[in-house]
Design brief:
11 strands, about 130 residues, mainly beta, two-stranded antiparallel ribbon
């Protein structure tokens, strides 16, 4: 699997169920409000099975997770909680279980498609490649 499918810089172009999902995972409403129309930038560097996945939020806040698929890694949630998880690569998708939601990411039609599921709420975020 030589191709670096995920490497790139992506900007959110659309999302679904943002408010419901953020409430479901316990994000405070003022934070939800601030983030609602912000174009989160995701920057991904893939080197074989090693990933550096950064997200740039409003107000200069960034978060970076480094992981190797199939190995346990120390990761951080959107709200800054640290946890351990094994990120998998299944059928070209990145799959991870965060403490309170299940997350997948894939490149589809040149776009980064991320789906997070918490209970009965599914949050879908589509980002276009900008670099």
């Amino acid at each position: 699997q030589g191709k670096m499918a995920f490497t790139g810089k992506y900007e959110v172009e659309s999302d679904e169920n943002y408010d419901d999902f953020m409430r479901k995972i316990g994000i405070p409403s003022d934070v939800i409000e601030k983030g609602r129309n912000f174009k989160i930038i995701s920057e991904v560097v893939q080197n074989g099975n090693e990933f550096t996945w950064s997200q740039h939020y409003p107000g200069g806040h960034s978060m970076t997770n480094k992981f190797t698929t199939g190995q346990e890694a120390d990761l951080e949630t959107m709200s800054g909680k640290k946890f351990k998880a094994t990120v998998k690569l299944e059928d070209g998708k990145i799959v991870a279980d965060f403490p309170n939601y299940h997350h997948t990411a894939e490149i589809s039609g040149g776009k980064l498609v991320e789906i997070s599921t918490a209970g009965d709420v599914t949050y879908k975020r589509i980002s276009k490649r900008i670099a």
